[in-house]
Amino acid sequence: MPYPDLSFADVSSAVVHQNLRPDIPRCCPSAMANIMRRCWDANPDKRPEMDEVVRLLEALDTSKGGGMIPEGQAGGCLCFFRARGP
């Protein structure tokens, strides 16, 4: 939970009235951060449709870490790792 000290009502209110959004970890690839920011746009009409989000996520190049900080240097950062399977 990004806001453990706030109630659901407080978080909901802050998202709507103060544009509260979670911090994007510094190890997050810029392309991923851009997708996140678009999804969090205060104006719902500017947010991408889910099919576009899926397309953008699938297009991310994570073959070389995608710009993420190496695991040993992440300093507690929780980065994503692309896992494909059956």
Entry keywords:
single chain, 86 residues, mainly alpha, protein serine/threonine kinase activity, Ser-Thr/Tyr_kinase_cat_dom, Kinase-like_dom_sf, Serine-threonine/tyrosine-protein kinase catalytic domain-containing protein, Ser/Thr_Kinases-Pseudokinases
Describe the 3D structure.
The protein has a domain at 25-61 and 74-86. It is mainly α and 86 residues long. The model has no long low-confidence stretch (mean pLDDT 80). Helices cover 36% and strands 0% of the residues. The protein contains three helices and no strands. This is Serine-threonine/tyrosine-protein kinase catalytic domain-containing protein.
Mean pLDDT: 80
Note the run of SSEs as H and E. Answer: HHH
Helix content: 25-40%
Number of helical elements: 3
The low-confidence parts are none
Q: Oligomeric state of the chains?
A: single chain
User: Could you give the count of β-strands?
Assistant: 0
Q: In angstroms, what separates the terminal alpha carbons?
A: 29 Å
**Largest pleated sheet:** none
Strand content: under 5%
User: Whole-number radius of gyration?
Assistant: 15 Å
Sheet/helix structural class? mainly alpha
Shape: globular
Domain Serine-threonine/tyrosine-protein kinase catalytic: 1-56
Pfam family, one: PK_Tyr_Ser-Thr
InterPro entries: Kinase-like_dom_sf (IPR011009), Ser-Thr/Tyr_kinase_cat_dom (IPR001245), Ser/Thr_Kinases-Pseudokinases (IPR051681)
Organism: Arundo donax (Giant reed)
